[in-house]
Amino acid sequence: MITAKATSQYQEKRLLYMALEGLCQETHYSLNGLPTATVLLPYLICLMKRPREEEEELPVVLGVQLRRALHEVAARASTPQLSQALLRSCESLVLPAAQQAVDAFKNQVYEQLTDLFGPGVSDVPLQLKQRIHVRFRDQLKDSVVGMLRETLGEAQEELRDMASAAISRMQRRDRIVFGRELQVLGVREAPYEAPLPLATWFNVLSFLAVQEVLAVISRVSRAWFKVSMHDKLWNQITLLQLESGLPPVSEMPFFFRKLKNIITVQFSATNCTDVVLEVLSDSCPNVRNLNVAASHSITDRGIKAISKFSRLEQLDLESCELVTNSGVEFLAQGCRKLVQLSLKYCRSVSDAGIEHLGLRMRSLRILNLNYLPVTDEAMHSIAKGCPHLEELSLKYCRNITDAGLEFLSSGCHALKRLTLSYCQQITDWGLKKLSLGCIQLEELNIKYCRLISDAGIINIAQGCRQLADFNMNYCDKVTDEGIRALAGACHQLTSLKTVFCRQVTDLGVKAMALGFRQLKDLDLESCPLVGDLGLDALSKYCPSLSSLILDGALAVTDLGLEHLASRCKNLSKLNLNSCDKITDSGVILLLNSCLKLKELILTNCPLVTENCLKSVAATGIKQG
């Protein structure tokens, strides 16, 4: 249901669009045989959608014309708060320089015509500009100069008087829908002398959310209602993003039936309920992608409604805490074509729920079970029933052990991406079993699996040679031996994270450089034994390196930075936090040589002076 806040927003937007309607109807002159409304209306709609900080850059003439329309609406505002909001909008749209206004307007008209009618217009830009100049110069210049001569203070005082008098007259605002009430707002029902093409209308409405078209645009006038309800408009909509208020429950069937061809539906956090899902499933049977993440009021009843989407392929239920194993059973029974499913933070789902997935969802390829209280039994179910699984995320599933990895290895041979971060019962034996069956692994995350040592890394290197992204952060038992084995076998690796692997030295980094020639992203944070020799090897053999984290690499000096500056021309991000041996000289070398550098972190570097930091800031490089 639409909240009070959302209703207020819709009412304000509706008044503004009514002002635009009146403005466009009152525009009589044409441009090159086209009604000026054809150009003005799309731009004004875009204007309404721009961030406030960009308003001062708006073309001045359009700003002044819109200000005039806003004045009229402000005078008829239903509440003092709305009136003041409109007045503030008026103030922000007033800019000086009348001649600049005329030039800006001409450029905007030309750009709009190019957007609307394609490259044919750009073939005669000079001729088009001359026509604009001749037709509009005298009319617009005189008009704008006259309006800008009025001081803003006078305009504010006049508007406040108008608004104050009008507020007392507008007690019947609830009746502003169609017909006689529209006349109160000064909006005529007469059609345009030259109506906008439907294609132009559809382009205009594409800037708006679907619920805004229904709740605002359709209630401006009869002409706008007809366009907003046109089947061609709704038939081409395949994506529905509900970011603000929903229609009232009584209007939902009509709302969703208009969207019979919708394929993707995305609800923002907390605004989806079981009732909404029931109406949606009855009205839009073709939905294939559904995102209801963080909709905390959804229960198994809502999941039962979702199970009616027999063609559903992607479903995100992240943080839907009220969903239980029964809801997962409904999904498994009805959504047999599901390819991607996220149950992250659905902590009421346990092994029994995952068993239902394994029994019926053989097409599943991506599964997120982060933070669920599942055990090795769930891995057994997945291994038996999901042979095509390519991505599995088990972050903080602390009940998973080596036995669970053995199950996965026996049944999920297509697995390419696996997250085991914070699964602290995993050992080298589990990685050995995993490497025997999941040989297509491309991404592996074992962050904080602190029982893993070189033996586990060696097993992964021997079995998973297609590995491209490996995160072993906080696996502090790993040494240069494990790194050498990895570098000797996994030559496709482009990203490696070894945060707090404190036993890794320059020898290990040199092995990385020799083995990972395609390396782009390397994180060596809190590896205090890594120094200049390691950086020399990286600069020689890893020309594609773009991101390097050396936070806490205490052995790095200016010599290491000189190596990077001489050869790492693609470096865009470098973190040197707490590298207490580097000085201004090394930093200046980087600035002069690494021209693609966009981020350079130099915090806690005592030998780097304030003047050097100012030099970095002057280049526009982001600093930590």
What does this molecule look like?
The two termini are 44 Å apart. This protein has 27 helices and 17 strands. By secondary structure, the chain is of the alpha/beta class. Among the domains are: 4-200, no CATH class; 505-624, Ribonuclease Inhibitor (Leucine-rich repeat, LRR (right-handed beta-alpha superhelix)), CATH 3.80.10.10. The longest helix is centred in the first third of the chain and has 25 residues, at 125-149. The model is unreliable at 1-10, 19-66, 89-102 and 115-195 (pLDDT under 50). Helix 2 runs parallel beside helix 9 (198-205) and helix 3 (60-75) packs antiparallel against helix 4 (80-92).
Helix-strand blueprint:
Elements: H1 4-25, E1 30-31, E2 34-35, H2 36-49, H3 60-75, H4 80-92, H5 98-117, H6 125-149, H7 152-169, H8 180-184, H9 198-205, H10 210-215, H11 222-228, H12 231-235, E3 239-242, H13 252-257, E4 264-267, H14 274-283, E5 289-291, H15 300-306, E6 314-316, H16 325-334, E7 340-342, H17 351-360, E8 366-368, H18 376-385, E9 391-393, H19 402-411, E10 417-419, H20 428-437, E11 443-445, H21 454-463, E12 469-471, H22 480-489, E13 495-497, H23 506-515, E14 521-523, H24 532-541, E15 547-549, H25 558-567, E16 573-575, H26 584-593, E17 599-601, H27 610-618
Parallel strand pairs: 3-4, 4-5, 5-6, 6-7, 7-8, 8-9, 9-10, 10-11, 11-12, 12-13, 13-14, 14-15, 15-16, 16-17
Antiparallel strand pairs: 1-2
Helix pairs in contact: 1-2, 1-3, 2-5, 2-9, 3-4, 4-7, 5-6, 14-15, 15-16, 16-17, 17-18, 18-19, 19-20, 20-21, 21-22, 22-23, 23-24, 24-25, 25-26
